[in-house]
């Protein structure tokens, strides 16, 4: 019995050596608390081995406390507003885990962790202004973080750690988490074929899902898009469900307390001040017209069930956008930009047509990229995605930047005419009124029901004259009043 006891302690001492622990233990299963629990082991005399599965320890070696600073998020942004924290002090985080969501005057950005460790301090409250280059959180790092990263690939095919988290794409490295790689592998998708929209080109689950949808023609359920933004710590962040994509509730009535209240302009409201101040320095030329959409109403009624059968909600907007793109091919000056010195004009090759959208964050203008290459169904599919992201407050810089021409569907809220303001550096914008059923005379002089919509255009009068704007509007109206004519020019 004494010999057996001595033998067990010999094996026990061997298990406590650093090299043996690194080879046999899954450090991911260690708990982050510092409570040391009694060690338990089982001696199997018949097998003469000590089962390592019964040996547990909650002690994890900690490294230094690192101040995680808010890095430059581009486009000259120096400060942001902290909209939501996904972690709290004491939470354990891993690399690429979401820490918080910040909002600049251009877009909302999710900040992710660069370290494995424990959150020790949050430097800002919600709605506070965070400065680029200043500490955001303090993280007590784990001295064995590199070992933990290697453990991430234990259950996947053998590969180097660099191959697992990075992949060469045209000479540049883009990052992909294990979950993203697994999703791509399950759907037989090569990461080199997918363009990453995350920070520094990182591939996100949303990128894989969008790529899969375009390849198969399938529509991704809204919950999948929302899951791509959900951090691992469910307790630290409210769970978003499909209810989040419902139309926002009516704005609550202000409570008057008898005192004046002053608050600073932040986020998109602050951006609107800058943009509109610059926009109204442009001499605007206005032009209005009336469009008979009776034939388009009948065509949409026929195509709507087919689109819904493919999972896409088909509104009138895809037709308006495609007709505008066809018109821009004939009048490219409306798809241009003018430099600040008014010495050079740039004709844009891509038709990135924006749609002014009323969201919970305010007025945003995401755009559909390369409309000249898309079908009406493709545009409808992309609009569905943008509207879902806008409702959920998840429109990013990629969706909000790069616009070349804008349509504002003010008629979805009400009103027939508007005076839209150009969004610099664009040179033209259109505002669409609501569709009304009104009496009109047909070719035979008989009174008929007509579906009429008013459109109001604004153009930069420094480079666009009234005749050009009028001819473009006439062509756009002809495409919509006789939708069959669009078939001749569709690509």
From TrEMBL:
PANTHER family recorded: DIHYDROLIPOAMIDE ACETYLTRANSFERASE COMPONENT OF PYRUVATE DEHYDROGENASE COMPLEX (PTHR43178), LIPOAMIDE ACYLTRANSFERASE COMPONENT OF BRANCHED-CHAIN ALPHA-KETO ACID DEHYDROGENASE COMPLEX, MITOCHONDRIAL (PTHR43178:SF5)
PROSITE patterns: BIOTINYL_LIPOYL (PS50968), LIPOYL (PS00189), PSBD (PS51826)
Superkingdom of source: Eukaryota
Compartment(s) where it occurs, according to its Swiss-Prot or TrEMBL record: Mitochondrion matrix
Name of the gene this protein is made from: dbt
Names of the cofactor(s): (R)-lipoate
A GO-annotated cellular component: cytosol
InterPro entries: 2-oxoA_DH_lipoyl-BS, 2-oxoacid_DH_actylTfrase, 2-oxoacid_DH_E2_comp, Biotin_lipoyl, CAT-like_dom_sf, E3-bd_dom_sf, PSBD, Single_hybrid_motif
Stated family: Belongs to the 2-oxoacid dehydrogenase family.
Record carries keyword Isomerase: no
EC number: 2.3.1.-
Organism the protein comes from: Cyclopterus lumpus
Keywords: Acetylation, Acyltransferase, Lipoyl, Mitochondrion, Phosphoprotein, Transferase, Transit peptide
Residue ranges of domain Lipoyl-binding in the record: 65-140
SUPFAM superfamilies membership: CoA-dependent acyltransferases (SSF52777), Peripheral subunit-binding domain of 2-oxo acid dehydrogenase complex (SSF47005), Single hybrid motif (SSF51230)
Name of the protein: Dihydrolipoamide acetyltransferase component of pyruvate dehydrogenase complex
Catalysed conversion reaction: N(6)-[(R)-dihydrolipoyl]-L-lysyl-[protein] + 2-methylpropanoyl-CoA = N(6)-[(R)-S(8)-2-methylpropanoyldihydrolipoyl]-L-lysyl-[protein] + CoA
An example Gene Ontology molecular-function term: lipoic acid binding
Occurrences of domain Peripheral subunit-binding (PSBD) (ranges): 175-212
Functional description taken from the UniProt entry: The branched-chain alpha-keto dehydrogenase complex catalyzes the overall conversion of alpha-keto acids to acyl-CoA and CO(2). It contains multiple copies of three enzymatic components: branched-chain alpha-keto acid decarboxylase (E1), lipoamide acyltransferase (E2) and lipoamide dehydrogenase (E3). Within this complex, the catalytic function of this enzyme is to accept, and to transfer to coenzyme A, acyl groups that are generated by the branched-chain alpha-keto acid decarboxylase component.
Pfam families: 2-oxoacid_dh, Biotin_lipoyl, E3_binding
């Amino acid at each position: 019995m004494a010999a057996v006891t001595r033998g067990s302690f010999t094996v026990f001492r061997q298990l406590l050596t650093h090299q043996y622990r690194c080879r046999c233990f899954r450090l991911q299963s260690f708990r982050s608390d510092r409570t040391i629990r009694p060690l338990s082991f089982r001696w199997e005399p018949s097998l003469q081995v000590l089962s390592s599965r019964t040996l547990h320890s909650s002690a994890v070696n900690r490294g230094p406390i690192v101040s995680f600073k808010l890095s430059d998020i581009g486009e000259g942004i120096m400060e942001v507003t902290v909209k939501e924290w996904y972690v709290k002090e004491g939470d354990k985080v891993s690399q690429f885990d979401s820490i918080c969501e910040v909002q600049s005057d251009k877009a909302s950005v999710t900040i992710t962790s660069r370290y494995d460790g424990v959150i020790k301090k949050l430097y800002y409250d919600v709605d506070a202004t965070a400065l680029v280059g200043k500490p955001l959180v303090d993280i007590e790092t784990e001295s064995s973080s590199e070992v933990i990263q290697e453990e991430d690939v234990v259950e996947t095919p053998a590969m180097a750690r660099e191959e697992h988290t990075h992949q060469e794409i045209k000479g540049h490295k883009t990052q992909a988490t294990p979950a993203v790689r697994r999703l791509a592998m399950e759907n037989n998708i090569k990461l080199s074929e997918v363009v990453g929209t995350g920070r520094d080109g990182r591939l996100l689950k949303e990128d894989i899902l969008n790529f899969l949808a375009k390849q198969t023609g399938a529509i991704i359920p809204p919950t999948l898009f929302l899951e791509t933004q959900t951090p691992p710590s469910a307790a630290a962040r409210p769970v978003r469900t499909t209810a989040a994509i419902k139309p926002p509730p009516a704005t609550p009535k202000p409570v008057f307390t008898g005192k004046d209240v002053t608050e600073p302009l932040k986020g998109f409201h602050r951006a609107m001040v800058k943009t509109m101040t610059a926009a109204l320095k442009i001499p605007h030329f206005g032009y209005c017209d009336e469009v008979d959409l009776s034939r388009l109403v009948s065509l949409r009624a026929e195509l709507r069930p087919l689109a819904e059968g493919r999972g896409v909600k088909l509104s009138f907007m895809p037709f308006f956008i495609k007709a505008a793109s066809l018109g821009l091919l004939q009048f490219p000056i409306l798809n241009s930009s003018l430099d600040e010195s008014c010495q050079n004009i740039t004709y844009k090759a891509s038709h990135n047509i924006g749609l002014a959208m009323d969201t919970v964050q305010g007025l945003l203008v995401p755009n559909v990229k390369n409309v000249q290459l898309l079908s009406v169904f493709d545009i409808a599919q992309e609009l569905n995605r943008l509207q879902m992201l806008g409702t959920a407050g998840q429109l990013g810089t990629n969706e909000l930047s790069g616009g070349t021409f804008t349509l504002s569907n003010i008629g979805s809220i009400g009103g027939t005419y508007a005076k839209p303001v150009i969004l610099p550096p664009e040179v033209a914008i259109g505002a669409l009124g609501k569709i009304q059923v009104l009496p009109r005379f047909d070719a035979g002089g008989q009174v008929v029901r007509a579906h009429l919509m008013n459109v109001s255009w604004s153009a930069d009068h420094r480079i666009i004259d009234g005749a050009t704007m009028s001819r473009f509007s006439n062509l756009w109206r002809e495409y919509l009043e006789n939708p069959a004519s669009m078939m001749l020019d569709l690509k």
